[in-house]
Amino acid sequence: MTEFRFDQWLDLYATRVSQMRSSEIREMLAVATRPDVISFAGGLPDTRVFPVNQIVESTQRVMLREGHEALQYGSSEGHEALRRHIVEMMAEIDVEVGVDDIIITDGAQQALELLGKIFIGRGDTIIVEAPSYVGALQAFTSYEPDVVSVPLDDMGLRTDLLAEKLEELIKKGRQPKFVYVVPNFHNPVGVTLVEERRRELIELSGKYGFVIIEDDPYGRIRFDGEEEPSLRSMDENVVYLGTFSKIFAPGMRLGWVAAPRAILEKLIFAKQAANLCSSSFSQRVTEEYLSAFDWRKNVEVLIDLYTERRDAMLSALEEFFPEEATWTHPNGGLFIWATLPDGLDSGEMLAEAIREAKVAYVPGRAFYVGVEKNSSMRLNFSYCPPEVIYEGIKRLGAVTKHHLALYRSLLRGYSPGSK
Ligand SMILES: Cc1ncc(COP(=O)(O)O)c(C=O)c1O
User: Fold this and answer.
1) Are the beta carbons of 324 and 344 closer than 8 angstroms?
2) Which residues contact 342 (CB under 8 A, 6 or more apart)?
3) Domains of the chain, with CATH numbers?
4) 374 lines ligand 1 (CB under 6 A)
5) How far is the CA of 43 from the centre of ligand 1 (A)?
């Protein structure tokens, strides 16, 4: 009798596919999209911030003026007029680049995938922050690297630990290909890399010869605090990733890479193989929107909205979370990272949070490579209105306290002197 196998092609897939397992977390979070669940799990902008009417107008103008070109294939580098806007936007963060130093991608996510493709061979060493953006880990791990993780704290990546790690790797004859960082309002932690550590990171890249990938989707979504200089403004060898997803609309699927020409050339080859070009239509509509409307004002509106929500979440955490818990106080972006006392597993708690309290978050372990247990959670504050945030954190606080009490009683049960 033939053995029953769920997937009859299992022996045919490339080895990298084994890295693409569906996770138990993802399955649980699929339930969290139900309307009766308050979800802090996504990383989504509030749809209310999308300038729908301005996009309707931009689309109409593009179709009337250049409809045929907008529906044709475009160049792999991207629409030049859009790249000119990006040059201006980059100048605002003190990055001097020309149109030829930039290519357009399908969001920053495609840039991560293409960078994985051009830099990572099987078993190559790459360095990421711990924790790190899940989408980057997914993009990179499919190329089968050896992932080295370096912790971060309230001031961003621990460059002192990075230096130690690099020394260790080089001694073992392992050359790291790149260090991937989200320096502003980190996903998932919300912290910002301080200037001194930015300098240290750049010095280390000069000393050890790795590429720095600066992924910056949130830099413009600042509520308060001082702006730190972009890594790319400090060193022209940095590969900078930008995106229109958080300052305009993720549905346009547009981002960009500013990189040294030699790297850009390889990225273009990789992009040609991936999708020939990004959507000519999206690029032209976005270009028209940037030219015709005050997009900066729209960003200010969304900053006001998210500031209120961040504040609502911070005060709800203060009111409802156990006093042993800690959390970050981001000056921008979309996320707060809350940490429960050691020993508690936020992954284990998720099922109860969804089932009993109808509230969802992403457990910390999702943001690490090879970590099974973790007591932190990522809480998104951009998507729900303040009153829903308040209610959700109230419910989550109750689940957390319940788990903590349970954990304590278990500990007491196991303590050496107990009966
Ligand atoms: C750190 C980071 N990088 C990249 C992305 C991908 O964004 P997009 O592909 O929409 O530009 C995200 C999305 O949330 C992100 O948080």
Assistant:
1) no
2) 375
3) 15-49+297-412 (3.90.1150.10), 52-292 (3.40.640.10)
4) no
5) 9
Q: What's the pTM? A: 0.94
* pLDDT tens per residue across span 160-197: 999 999 999 999 999 999 999 999 999 999 999 999 99
Q: Is the CB of 185 under 6 A from ligand 1?
A: no
Order the strands of the 362-363 sheet from edge to edge: 326-327, 335-339, 376-380, 362-363
Ligand 1 atom index nearest CA of 250 = 10
Q: How far does residue 219's CA lie from ligand 1's centre (Å)? A: 12
Indicate if ligand 1 lies below 6 Å from the C-beta of 245: yes
188 within ligand 1 shell (Cβ under 6 A):
no
CA distances from 350 to 139, 293, 339, 360 (A): 25, 43, 14, 7
Q: pLDDT, tens digit, for every residue of 342-392?
A: 888 999 999 999 999 999 999 999 999 988 889 999 999 999 999 999 999
Nearest atom in ligand 1 to 106's CA:
9
Render 276-313 in DSSP notation, one character per residue. Answer: SSS-HHHHHHHHHHHHHS-HHHHHHHHHHHHHHHHHHH
